[in-house]
Amino acid sequence: MTLNPPSPSPSIFKEKESLSQLLSITTAVSYLSAIQRAEFRARTRDNPHASPTPALSLSSSITISSEDTVLNEDDENNYLTNPHTPPTSEQVFTTLHAEFGHCANEAYRCVSKHDYTKPFQEHTIEEPPYYIHLATYISFLILHMLGHLRDFFGKRFIKSHFTHLMPHNGYAPLNSDFDSFFPRRLKRRMDDCYGQPITGVPGRTVLILDRYSPDYNHTQIYTGGKTRALNISSYNYLAFSQGRGSWADAVVESIRRYGVSSCGTRLESGSNDLHVSAEALIAHFLGTEDALVCSMGFATNSTFIPGLAGKGSLIISDELNHTSMRVGIRQSGAEIRIFKHNDMSSLESLLREVISQGQPKTHRAWKKILVIVEGLYSMEGTLVNLPRIVELKQKYKFYLYIDEAHSIGSLGSRGRGVTDYFNVPPDSIDVLMGTFSKGFGAAGGYIAGSKPLIDALRLRSHSVPQPTKSTLSPSLDSSIIVPNESAEELSGMAPASMLPTWINLCPSLADGSEARVRMRRLAFNCRYLHAGLKKLGFIVYGHASSPIVPLLIFNPGKLPVFVRMMRARPIPIVVVVVTYPATSFETGRVRLCPSASHTKEDIDIVLRACDEVGGILDMKHGSCERWGIDEVCERAVELAHSV
């Protein structure tokens, strides 16, 4: 097997031509297991005090030379004479970077914004041939029949293996065999594909801890080895989850100054100055009056939504909203109605019905109608139809809550989420929620909106200590205030004076050039991967600009095979698969997540791997005009700008 031809951007996986014949006899583990040693050895030639952590460039637009590793001719001859000794990475690769790929080619850039000359890309579900659905349902039928038979006979003849499903020593079982059926009979069989332990930073590549299971994934045994693999599975959209850099130095300095506990929560006496600074920066970044920080993204939804609506109010939710929002909605005590995923006709029809009928039994007018949607749906990769939903908001006078956990930092020309992507004024949205764990490589969440809204949430939310009287707004009659009709133009970058004086950013971050390059690289990688998979014949869900690219596999039996085949390639690739109950029975999928750290050549590697593995597993059922893999790679720029 040969590797791809080199592209204009250098890669961490670049083969030495003189050793191409070695690739057919090396395993995936031996093929990349020595990369970290090579990175350390390459740096210690220039810096004897370098640490084993991969080096980090502070600018994504700067390329570096290919002198990171030197091929030792004696080592090469030793390997050729002794094929049982795996080659080192110095013999096979020119290692450039493990956390962030360098790409100076300006052609591999796109701007993330909606083209209003084209209609909004609706969420369409492309169906595979009937035999694919038939095979999928037969697979689940066999799973149910054999699984329940094994449970039936196991409880009677092998009771020691089923004590957790039966009353034992006076204790009731924690859950029934039916409730735990899929975790036991489906997920456990491919636990090696779900919980892959890693070490280090989940950047452009990731270091996997090697393990195996002698008992069908009931237990895992670690071998002590590590495998360096291309990472296409993390939510590290802007690649800020890196081990080195001025932002990482700022985190270390903040912990040194304030301690871990003070950095994670507000002080009981009122507020932490780090939180005050962060909330001011968030409000400035989003173009809102105020913002509120929470220590956890899940808790942001589940604890703040009950403060926005209660009895006598109505919450209308998209059917595919995240569990954190569903928890918060249930805890609010409000009436709940559901509309079809991203279907504005379904939403408008429901609005007309609930407004005309009013509250149940009394038919009084609703105290408040709150519509809750996501900016970018993590399982489908679809974007909310924000222009249309804002039109409905102006017509029917409801309040709008948008969860931007996945869209903030990954969409828009300035990375400010769906409002930036669609060029919608931020003050036309009542509540903007987001997290820091995706695009920003940190932790926690936020709520942004009007000043009276944020003050009310400080008083009513379970996640925030009650503020002092001096910080409360005098008017708290409504937890949501209607925004002004005339929205001001969104301000530019936050001035350096808003940052604590002890934070020293490198020039490329201080002037915003680094962030702009990362956002444009992410936009190109997303569009290229999405369009490339379609041209190869795959069924792909989601929006073309989404950093979440769901590739449909359908049959549950193919899911673990796909993951293991991608991981066992000469260049291992880490992917994530999702199946029932997170999706419907027949729509099992692999979820690919490109980031700004990937180069064009990295996306080529992923496309070539998907093309080969997808052909073996019979996954190409798309109706789009098909191209060959070489044509897709050659016309990448055309593909990225055509969607």
Tag the structure with descriptive keywords.
alpha/beta; Aspartate Aminotransferase, domain 1; four-stranded mixed β-sheet; 22 helices; 35% helix; PyrdxlP-dep_Trfase; Aminotrans_II_pyridoxalP_BS; pyridoxal phosphate binding; EC 2.3.1.50; serine C-palmitoyltransferase
Please describe what this structure looks like.
Its cofactor is pyridoxal 5'-phosphate. It contains 22 helices and 14 strands. With 643 residues, it is of the alpha/beta class. The chain folds into four domains: 17-92, no CATH class; 130-191, no CATH class; 194-237 and 516-642, Aspartate Aminotransferase, domain 1, CATH 3.90.1150.10; 265-486, 3-Layer(aba) Sandwich (Aspartate Aminotransferase, domain 2), CATH 3.40.640. The strands form three sheets. Strands 4-10-9-8-7-5-6 form a seven-stranded mixed beta sheet, with helices on both faces. It has a four-stranded mixed beta sheet with strand order 1-2-3-12. Helix 13 (344-357) runs parallel beside helix 14. The two termini are 32 Å apart.
